[in-house]
UniProtKB/TrEMBL annotation:
Stored InterPro entries: AAA+_ATPase (IPR003593), AAA_ATPase_domain (IPR050168), ATPase_AAA_core (IPR003959), ATPase_AAA_CS (IPR003960), P-loop_NTPase (IPR027417)
Protein name per the record: ATP-dependent zinc metalloprotease FtsH
Protease is among the record's keywords: yes
Domain AAA+ ATPase residue range list: 8-135
Length: 213
């Protein structure tokens, strides 16, 4: 691709709701590439202004992976209320710099529709990968992993527990169900897990304004 003048840099955008494992995926990929690649993390607190400097330094260091967390908090949509044309310009300038350099850019976002189309077009992000809520089968696997060292876990009906969880349950929710159940009951039981699910307390909710008065 480089010899043909088409560039070698690739961009991957992981999109999905909070808590489904986007950051975990980037961490696994980064750990696999660490060594042959220089891995650089940027988050929303870093803003877009220093990205160009980061890219310049990565080119100097050789093959690099740049991970950008919560891209939607850095680059919004030009029709959004909190849109910053300066931030978008800085971000696009960084992405378009060094098109033939061996750079892989991997970013995460909770909602791809909040990103300006200029930021996610082809040649900037070549692939947008949806990371959905876990399926019932995946939820069952997550439960089994979390319960591995918990007393009584071998008798837990993880299929029944997985089926009782709402479809929009993420990995953090599942972990909290297990944590609360272990605090309430040891050895842990299927009934204890189902009871925690029925309360809904494993998922924080905003209190009514009146509760503060």
């Amino acid at each position: 691709m480089k010899d043909l003048g088409l560039g070698v840099r690739r961009g991957l955008l992981l999109a999905g709701p909070p808590g489904v494992g986007k950051s975990a995926i980037t961490s696994v990929i980064a750990s696999e590439l660490a060594g042959p690649f220089t891995v650089v993390y940027r988050n929303s607190r870093s803003g877009a202004s220093l990205l160009r400097n980061v890219f310049d330094e990565c080119v100097r260091l050789g093959p690099s992976l740049v991970v950008i967390e919560d891209l939607d908090l850095i680059v919004g949509h030009r029709h959004g209320s909190d849109f910053s044309s300066h931030a978008l310009s800085e971000f696009l300038a960084a992405l378009d710099s060094h098109p033939s350099a061996p750079l892989l850019v991997m970013a995460t976002t909770n909602d791809v529709t909040t990103l300006d189309s200029a930021a996610v077009r082809a040649a900037r992000f070549d692939s947008i990968i949806e990371v959905p809520y876990p399926s019932p089968a995946t939820t069952k696997q997550i439960l089994e992993t979390l319960l591995t060292d918990v007393p009584g876990s071998t008798r837990v009906d993880t299929s029944a527990v997985a089926a009782a969880l709402p479809r929009n349950t993420n990995g953090a929710d599942i972990r909290e169900v297990v944590r609360r159940s272990v605090l309430k009951s040891q050895p842990v039981t299927t009934q204890a897990l189902l009871a925690q699910i029925s309360t809904g307390r494993y998922r924080p909710t905003m209190p009514e304004v009146g509760n503060y008065l």
